[in-house]
Amino acid sequence: MAERILVVEDEEPIRKIIVSMLRTAKFESEEAADGLEALAVLESGKEFELVLSNLMMPNLDGIGLLERVKDKYPDMPVVIVTGVHDISVALAAMRNGAYDYLLKPFSREQLLNTVSRALESRRLNVENRDYQRSLESLVKARTDQLQAAMSSLERSYNMTLEGLGEALRMKDSATEGHSKRVIAFAIGIARAMGLGREKIAVIARGAFLHDIGKIAIPSSILSKPGALTPDETAIMRQHCFHGYKMLQKLPFLAEAGEIIYAHHERFDGTGYPRMLKGEQIPVGARIVAVANALDSITSDLPYRHAQSLGAAREEIRRWSGRQFDPQVVEAFLSMPDKIWDDLRNHIVDN
């Protein structure tokens, strides 16, 4: 289909010459005698690929027409024709959005070259816009697909976590409430330390599963009412490694596995199973160590009764720098007692 050009020129003889030049080059064209008439033609619904407009016209001049065309038809290039041989006039037209300008008198070759360049520029702009829209649509579709896949994966992760938690509960029912409280305490401490949401999510998973390795520990040792023998203690301490090995085969729990492996390490390097020291211990494990101790001290155990929150705070303070990371202890001690009571009561209620 031939490209359509709207020729806007108040001098009819010149307008007819321009239209004749365009038609010999196989362009379709329509005429308008001034800017207002040109706007009426454009608003009639007819489609054009280019406006070729004189600068000086009655009613609405070329600059006025240019401004309205660029506002309502941003993809349509406008070429200004002028008999004023003043470069500032041409520059003003370009600043207002004209693609190019032609100085009267001009040859047929000059006219067609300028028109061809303007139309090619329009084609490129339209193709680029369409490509951009297509790309945005593709990105949105891929993003939607990815979000759906991530939601499905997250559901699978949650089901895996629930399954692991249920397996541990069946082995040792007392561990379920303990794990939930340690999660709540660990998240509270992590937030007080200003850790990011993704890091806290990993710590929460590590806290929930920190005792998962106890599945491999004999029930006679787990539920023994008295103190463990040295041999039984050695077996009990293996639960860190057992839990780590279980989760290493689940990529989304690998970081949580590192927390499980290290949650009984001590800040001074005297813990187990690898005697890690200071920042060799993952920060999540250092947080879980304090949360775990807080719940253990304030809960009834087979070999002793629960102690007060004040006693737990004092015990954790005393072991700062030895068993516990001083920064984690500082964050823990900075939090009001009511927070821990509320968290514990919330776990009990639910």
Summary tags:
about 350 residues, 5-stranded parallel beta sheet, about 60% helix, 15 helices, 5 strands, rod-shaped, alpha/beta
What can be said about the biggest beta sheet? Answer: 5 strands, parallel
Low-confidence stretches: none
Query: What is the string of SSEs from the N terminus onward?
Result: EHEHEHEHEHHHHHHHHHHH
Span of the ends, CA to CA: 72 Å
Helical element count?
Answer: 15
Structural class: alpha/beta
User: What fraction, in percent, of the residue positions are helical?
Assistant: 55-70%
Query: How would you state the average pLDDT, rounded?
Result: 85
Indicate the proportion of strand residues. 5-15%
Going across the major beta sheet, what is the strand order? 2-1-3-4-5
The global form is rod-shaped
Rg, Å, rounded = 39 Å
Structure commentary:
The mean pLDDT is 85. This protein is of the alpha/beta class. The radius of gyration is 39 Å and the shape is rod-shaped. It has a 5-stranded parallel β-sheet, sandwiched between helices. The two termini are 72 Å apart. The protein has helices at residues 12-24, 35-43, 62-72, 87-95, 108-171, 174-192, 197-208, 219-222, 230-236, 239-247, 254-262, 283-297, 309-318, 326-333, 337-349, and strands spanning 4-8, 28-32, 50-54, 78-82, 100-103.
Write the topology of this structure:
Blueprint: E1 4-8, H1 12-24, E2 28-32, H2 35-43, E3 50-54, H3 62-72, E4 78-82, H4 87-95, E5 100-103, H5 108-171, H6 174-192, H7 197-208, H8 219-222, H9 230-236, H10 239-247, H11 254-262, H12 283-297, H13 309-318, H14 326-333, H15 337-349
Parallel strand pairs: 1-2, 1-3, 3-4, 4-5
Helix pairs in contact: 2-3, 6-7, 6-12, 6-15, 7-11, 7-12, 10-11, 11-12, 12-13
